[in-house]
Design goal:
By secondary structure, this protein is an all-alpha fold. It has 20 helices and no strands. It has helices at 6-27, 33-37, 45-56, 60-72, 78-100, 106-114, 118-149, 153-202, 205-211, 215-218, 226-241, 244-251, 256-269, 273-286, 299-307, 310-348, 354-378, 384-408, 415-435, 443-471. The radius of gyration is 22 Å and the shape is globular.
């Protein structure tokens, strides 16, 4: 066990002051709920990319990646690799209809095609999916703070929750974008440094291969099996394409060009982040005998404390903490935006002004943090990326095919078809996960049911409508 030194503390304090200062500055730009959630459309491409990466590059892509690499090797890369592919598809295929719609949430866009009923349904299921990833960030925060300060799970959760509230309540989307840009710059340096040190200690690539003479599963993207690992990567693609947080980021851009550039920047820069975590996970696996009792979730912070110079280690630890907190905060922002706009303002208080909506959104974030504490406490020690993959898959099963239908296949879908798909897709995913936890990944049946219901029900209800229309009013 390595204690935190004064060098670690100095590095952490300086890093946190820089990031907190940026967050405070961002908070001065927030005048109302539209600025807070990004609907005022003022963001440049850097803020768009910073918001996307500031949310995607968090505990799952760093601590979670090292944890999975420690257990299985290269397939720990699927989170950041799948996220990058998702951003590429978002920027090239789906962005134009989304941006030109002048909507600010996915349920609002779906409502234009499927009617008002689908709005709250989509909001609820996608919020559940996003919240599962919030649990993953909570697990990462606990692992990091426990390794850094040797505190209990409860204390780690209280500290991280306070930081989440400070991070998001002041600046909203503007805060997560600006801080995300700064954080990502620091995180890249941190990941490169950690991965570089691990590779150096291996003695280069030749030493890495010597440490793992059996190439499988350590150097395979399908170390846990093709079906499971392909579903993991695919869940990130569909999750990015159907998650409010990332859609919200591109819709906040001041122009379509800025939105596309921000998405493509994210597609390029997210995948390399996972490499450092993989190298660290493999190094710690090769030297696990030197760390008796090491928990897989503690792999990355333990490596930093043992092998990085204290000042640099402090910067890296603080950056990782902000990465986790930033993702947690960004996900909470996405949930609270959907619930405020698509449920509260639509069904509870239609006359709510901008300031009242902002207050409601901030109260929702407080409630989400309270529920997160309970959920993380009951799942302590769980696989971080396991929750992340489940989260992304559930979001995709809820919104992806209804969204694609509204964008590109309006002639083939109907309101009842979209509503049915938005309900049955995620329900299939959840039920399958509970009934067959060790079987086929729930993403597959969830997406099949969602797509099948959307087009089958659409065909039937269109045909029925056509028959009634041709029969005339006397029938």
């Amino acid at each position: 066990m390595v204690a935190i030194t004064s060098g670690h503390i100095i590095g952490m304090v300086v890093t946190l002051l820089i990031i907190v200062g940026a967050g405070i500055y961002a908070g001065t730009k927030v005048k109302g709920e539209r600025d807070f959630s990004g609907a005022s459309r003022k963001a440049g491409s850097a803020v768009v990319a910073g918001t996307i990466m500031g949310t995607l590059v968090g505990g799952s892509s760093t601590i979670g990646t090292a944890q999975l690499a420690f257990q299985y090797g290269l397939d720990g890369w699927w989170f950041t690799l799948g996220a990058g592919i998702g951003c590429l598809f978002l920027g090239t295929f789906m962005l134009r209809p989304l941006y030109s719609s002048n909507r600010s949430t996915i349920p609002q866009y779906l409502t234009d095609t499927y009617g008002p009923v689908i709005g709250p349904i989509s909001s609820v299921f996608t919020s559940i999916g996003i919240f599962i990833n919030v649990i993953a960030q909570g697990l990462a925060a606990v692992a990091l703070l426990s390794a850094m300060a040797h505190v209990s799970i409860t204390v780690a959760l209280v500290i991280s929750t306070v930081l989440v509230l400070a991070y998001v309540l002041a600046g909203g989307l503007q805060g997560t974008g600006i801080v995300g840009t700064i954080k990502l710059s620091l995180l890249y340096g941190a990941v490169i440094a950690a991965g570089g040190i691990a590779l150096y200690k291996f003695g280069g690539m030749s030493g890495l291969f010597e440490a793992f003479p059996e190439r499988f599963p350590w150097f395979s993207l399908f170390g846990r099996g093709f079906s499971l690992d392909f579903a993991a990567g695919f869940s990130l693609v569909v999750g990015v394409l159907s998650t409010q947080t990332y859609i919200q980021a591109v819709l906040s851009a001041r122009s379509f060009a800025h939105a596309r550039k921000g998405a493509l920047i994210s597609a390029i820069f997210i995948p390399p982040v996972g490499i450092g975590g993989i190298l660290v996970g493999l190094y710690m696996k090769a030297h696990v005998a030197d760390f008796p009792g090491l928990k897989s979730g503690d792999v990355l912070p333990t490596f930093i404390l043992h092998y990085m110079p204290p000042l640099l280690g402090g910067v890296v630890l603080a950056t990782l903490l902000v990465a986790v907190i930033g993702t947690w905060a960004g996900l909470n922002l996405g949930i609270s935006t959907m619930l405020t706009r698509d449920i509260y303002k639509r069904y509870i208080d239609k006359q709510a002004d901008d300031k009242k909506a902002l207050l409601v959104q901030r109260v929702l974030i407080l409630c989400l943090c309270a529920v997160t504490i309970a959920a993380v406490s009951s799942n302590a020690g769980g696989l971080i990326l396991g929750f992340s993959f489940l989260s992304m898959g559930l979001r995709g099963c809820s919104a992806l095919f209804p969204l694609l239908g509204a964008m590109f296949f309006k002639r083939f879908v109907t309101p009842i078809a979209g509503i049915s798909a938005a309900i049955l897709g995620p329900l299939t995913d959840l039920v399958w996960h509970l009934v067959f936890p060790k079987g086929l990944d729930p993403l597959y049946p969830g997406l099949v049911v969602s797509a099948g219901v959307l087009f089958a029900v659409g065909f039937f209800t269109r045909s029925k409508s056509a028959v009634h229309a041709s029969a005339g009013p006397g029938v």
